[in-house]
Amino acid sequence: MRERILQVALELFTERGYDGTSLREIAEQLDVTKAALYYHFKSKDTILVSLIAELGDALDALVVWGRDQTLSPDFQHEMLDRVSDLFFGDANRVVRLIQQNQPVLRALAADAADRHVRDATEFKALIGEIITLMTPEDCDLHTRMRIRTAVAAIIFGPITAEQLGDTLEASLDEQKKISLAIARELLAT
Predict the structure, then answer these.
(1) pTM for the full model?
(2) What is the CA radius of gyration of the chain?
(3) What angle do CA 144, 180, 15 make, to 5 degrees?
């Protein structure tokens, strides 16, 4: 039930906005009572924090996996595949939520002495570590920039189009396929 609540809340938050969505609406969409929601989450804020934590946990797991790998073209391609699976999934909506709700998140972080609220700095550090894991230590600036741009093509591909008002007439799956192809081309040169 917890995962279903998070999924429905994410859909409503991205559709109507965080401030424009109430716990009552989440409960109605799930066809449960507000009390059933309270059993899993104390508030709408805890749902938001949980969504962000899940993205952070997924990135943490990706970094841990990457640390155990040997740098090679196969590893780089597998890392791109995994980043693509993550960011062309629900993560792109969570990233938009983070971007659109910075004041809410800052307030939550300030009020949350008893829990840690992940912030943009942590996500930047995790993405930076993924890029570092994919980058040979002795490579030149040109190669470093290609690898960074390859990762950015995947992470920002699904987000940027919507934010820029770009009406790509392609499904998210098609965009994922193209972003991954571009990222691989960057690595191959």
Answers:
(1) 0.82
(2) 18
(3) 110
Query: Is the Cβ–Cβ distance between 135 and 144 less than 8 Å?
Result: yes
Cα–Cα distance for residue pair 106/136, rounded to 1 Å:
36
CB within 8 Å of 38: residues ≥ 6 apart = none
pLDDT tens per residue across span 149-165? 999 999 887 765 555 66
What are 75-104's pLDDT values in tens digits? 999 999 999 999 888 888 888 787 777 777
Query: What span, in angstroms and rounded, lies between the C-alpha atoms of 8 and 10?
Result: 5
CA distance 117 to 110: 9
- Residue bearing tokens 């196969």: 74
For the stretch 7-33, pLDDT in tens is 999 999 988 888 899 999 999 999 999
CA distance 179 to 158: 9
